[in-house]
Amino acid sequence: MPARSHASHPPPPGTPSRFRIPTVPGGHNAVPKDNTYAIPPVLGDSLLALSDIVGAPAAAEIEATGKLSFHCIGDSGRGPGTNQQAVAEAMSRDIDPANHATSPAFLLHLGDVIYGDGKRDLYDDEFYRPYTDYHNKIIAVPGNHDGEEGLTIDTTSLEAFVENFCAPPGTQPPKAIQFGSEMVNQPGVYWMLETKLLDLIGLYSNAAEDFGILADNPARGVADVGDVQTKWLKKMLTRINADRARGTRRALIFAMHHPPYAQGLQTRGFGHPGSPEMLQQMDDACAAVGIMPDAVLSGHTHCYARYMRRVPQSGRTIPYIVNGAGGHAVEPAPNNFNFTVDNVTYANGAPHKGLVPAHGATSGFGYLMVTIDAANIDLAYSLVDSNHRQLFETTRVPLA
Predict the structure, then answer these.
(1) What is the three-class DSSP state of 54?
(2) Is residue 21 part of a domain?
(3) Structure confidence by residue, pLDDT tens digits, 191-231
(4) Number of structural domains, the chain?
(5) Does residue 5 belong to any structural domain of this protein?
């Protein structure tokens, strides 16, 4: 499998460290925290194949095993020699160079790759250096900090993210060239990865701090995003449903930065709450086609938490996993699953939302390993403490 190879380029002696988060004049919060922005255009139908990530020979070898696995983190941007690098090194120990077809194939990043102003320069310390020894390719959806815009942040929303993750086909970003790395040419900031076992839909939940959104929403006063992403989502779900009608059943996972379900703000005294309006936009797209995801992955809240949602129409229970402890910071894990965000109550068994008691929540840094075969999705979360890692829990999602 082609490796994500990095040459190590430590800063020269005396170079000021950039891993501490810089601030704009008046403090980082001087940038309006709940701004939203138009979404950059995507290429074509914004589709990725496994071969676009690992190369055609490796993709064929992986898919011949009947199993696909990948790593998943969110909210990592911190720097070399920090918990971000500890998590990266823990994930790297899952990769067996002698048996690459049965190792994790790539890393899915759930956003907030970079924190702070001057994002283009911060990719040195907050992305390329910490992943020097992680030899898999990385794909990503942007987080709110990746999308924020300001005088000293990024002059245009997502400019640094697009430069590094969405370089035109056949080219590499300047930073990747500088560090001897190889990036995937993503077709956009939202995309679908199609494999023989999995349809992975990456969504951009925009740049607000206190809520995620996929399209315009009058209730939030959001009128600058448009509806191109939700129209695209319905188109992709229709494509998947047509395959299922022909007898092809692949796992379906949604991934985005902001969590549909999360405690925060009203119940714990600080931000990172769930996003009921975004959840409704996802539900509307799914209802229009008659299909639901098998699992939903998000970050933003800096802990691990598993929310289980029962869908009465299908009788299925969907895990909504918050996985935002990839290295930047940690927050307390939720201690109960009865809470209200923006006047929407997420109570255990709330009839209209279907939330049922969840059993998984923990603070501390860590990562998710997702493994798919024809019968199940396994979602295994491991905690990382320095050079130690420990499995916390595994959630199995039957696909039958």
Answers:
(1) helix
(2) no
(3) 999 999 999 999 999 999 989 999 999 988 999 999 999 99
(4) 1
(5) no
